[in-house]
């Protein structure tokens, strides 16, 4: 099942810089693990915001909830999730090409 997620990060202003750097590094490592195992399909920065748009491919809403709620930055994120269904006009499973300009 595919899910679109918008995650906005709000780190507290009084959070120690080293603690913030550690959390970001842990988040990066977990995000890359999940990209490598195919569950975190897309990860895009929202231009001009400390936020990302992501697409997850997981077995269930429960799995997505577990995965997102265990992210190191989860305590500091607002997350909006939208379940995705196949569009009838889509010509492939992804309906997305990796070719620039297509
Ligand atoms: O920077 C973000 O948008 C939060 C985040 C998700 C994966 C990652 O490495 O950072």
TrEMBL record:
GO molecular function, one term: muconolactone delta-isomerase activity
UniProt-listed Enzyme Commission number(s): 5.3.3.4
Pathway membership, UniProt: Aromatic compound metabolism; beta-ketoadipate pathway; 5-oxo-4,5-dihydro-2-furylacetate from catechol: step 3/3
Pfam families membership: MIase (PF02426)
Catalytic activities: (S)-muconolactone = (4,5-dihydro-5-oxofuran-2-yl)-acetate
EC main group: isomerase
Source organism superkingdom: Bacteria
Record NCBIfam families: muco_delta (TIGR03221)
Protein name: Muconolactone Delta-isomerase
Gene source species: Haloechinothrix alba
């Amino acid at each position: 099942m595919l899910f679109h997620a918008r995650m906005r990060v709000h780190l507290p202003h009084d959070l120690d810089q080293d603690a913030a750097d550690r959390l970001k590094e842990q988040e990066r490592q977990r995000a890359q693990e999940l990209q490598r195992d195919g569950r975190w399909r897309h990860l895009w920065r929202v231009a001009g915001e400390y936020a990302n748009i992501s697409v997850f491919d997981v077995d269930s809403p429960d799995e997505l909830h577990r995965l997102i709620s265990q992210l190191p930055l989860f305590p500091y994120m607002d997350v909006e999730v939208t379940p995705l269904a196949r569009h009838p006009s889509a010509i492939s499973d992804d309906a997305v090409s990796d070719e620039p300009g297509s």
